[in-house]
Amino acid sequence: MKKFLVWTLVAISLIAILLRFSDKLADGLFGIRKTSGISVLSEPSEATVFFDSKKVGETPYEEKNLEAREYFIKIEKGEASWQGKVNLIVGAVTVINRDIAKDLISSAGEILTLDKGEGLTVVSSPTDADVEIDGKFFGKTPTAVDVDTGDHTILVSRKGYFNRSIRVNLPKDYSMTVSVDLALSEADLTAIQTPVTTQTPELLVKDTPTGFLRVRDKASLAGKEITQVKPGDTLILLEELTGWDRVRLSDGTEGYVSSSYVEKKNP
Question: By residue range, what is the domain housing residue 95?
């Protein structure tokens, strides 16, 4: 009886060790599968969520029984979308929060990933962004910060980009990586120096087989003839098109001429 109890305790201890230190081995021997979770949020909401090219639902989307591995995730609504690879951690929930847009420079968001450990790590695209946590400056991205467990507010900012404020909850015995994408802010047009135009582009009419050049109402041989100009005449260049130039005559008339029979007077 004593031997039976001893061997029973040994077997239980071995199982406990396997479950504690070898998830894959425990899965293979005992059919125990450790899972992870994910939460996907987007602005605008009701965007379609794809995991490895398979449609799984719409935002806000949540799943708590996923295999812990890397997934290729895409969020899409109309012409706006975001996509990226996310590695899910055993026993933890990864949060994806995205402002999706038609172009990458207008897209912003963050991915919150938990792992065993402690503290916060903040990374950003672009790098060298300022990091404030609970109103205190902690340096520039990428940066690792020792903070207490519980709720925190992270502000990531960089000149020329919209600020990103993230509210997080750091559990006990876990570390969190906050990966932030910043969106470009609108350009300050007052800071852009526009070069002064010192000379109006002009075209000189070259010799033609007919002794004149037709000015048409559109950039096509099918365009209606408005008037004619002669070789040696000077035209104001308004726009360069494929095979045609939009011009203004000395009397203010505007139209299109074949670029084959004009040349820039002051190239």
Answer: 35-181
